[in-house]
Amino acid sequence: MATPHIAAERGDFAPAVLMPGDPLRAKRIAETVLEDARQVNNVRGMLAYTGTVDGKPLSVMGSGMGQPSITIYATELFSQFDVERIIRVGTCGGLSPKVKVGDVVIGVGAHTESAMNVPRLPGVHFSAVASYNLVAAAAQRAGANAHVGTIISRDHFYLTPEGQNERLARYGVLGVEMEAAALYGVAAEFDKEALAVLTVSDNLLDSSEDMSSAERETLFEKALDAALAAAFC
Ligand code: HPA
Questions:
Q1: Please, is 36 exposed, middle or buried when counting C-beta atoms within 10 Å of its C-beta (0-12, 13-18, 19+)?
Q2: For 128-160, what is the HEC assignment?
Q3: Which residue in 202, 206, 210, 225 is the catalytic one?
Q4: Which of 152, 202, 206, 210 for a ligand 1 pocket mutation test, highest count of atoms within 8 Å of Cβ?
Q5: Residue 215: pLDDT band by 50, 70, 90 thresholds?
Q6: ipTM score here?
Q7: What stretches pass through the bilayer (predicted)?
Q8: Burial degree of 84 (CB within 10 A; 0-12, 13-18, 19+)
Q9: H or E element: which one contains 95?
Q10: pTM for this one?
Q11: Less Cβ around it within 10 Å: N or C end of the chain?
Q12: Whole-number mean pLDDT of the chain?
């Protein structure tokens, strides 16, 4: 039974879904990690694949950019396709001086200036937190390669209030991305599991740090490996 944004049947998705923002990255992940992958969605080009890893079922699907987009796909996957856990695999801008380009960030909790979670618990500032068992599995696999802590999910990519990045860094916020807080909210709504495992793609407080796209691709593999540990824990 299709939903407005996913033209698939119940049973077409595995209980665990890896979710990069970019649908073409979903395709590349499917080509590199899945055996017997089949495409299960292409509505609006939001490619999704289901296959197996060492005999265990796994799906990979793009989320698009931003909190409204991931909310639509996560809501439909959790409520209509029996998905139990979604692990976002993406990039973040580094904030804390502790994180370097190429490091892995495991987002235990996500601050946000977005209103996406506001209607969930009227009168309450919703705590957007990852599922502890997924955090533990990803952190154990990534070991010393990963930073485990808070992130911020912003709606704006280009507009940042003056001094906010510095202030967030002082509060120990590791990185900036655009989806996790909403994903954690949807998981809470449906009593399901969620996590964001991110690769630091650039440093917002020190733009001298940079790396080649080839280096980025290898470093993305560390995050993918940690995400797979969470998918199958
Ligand atoms: N802002 C938001 N999302 C991001 C960034 C950023 O600077 N870098 C990578 N994803």
A1: exposed
A2: CECCHHHHHHHHHHHHHHEEEEEEEECCCCCCC
A3: 202
A4: 202
A5: confident
A6: 0.93
A7: none
A8: middle
A9: none
A10: 0.96
A11: N
A12: 95
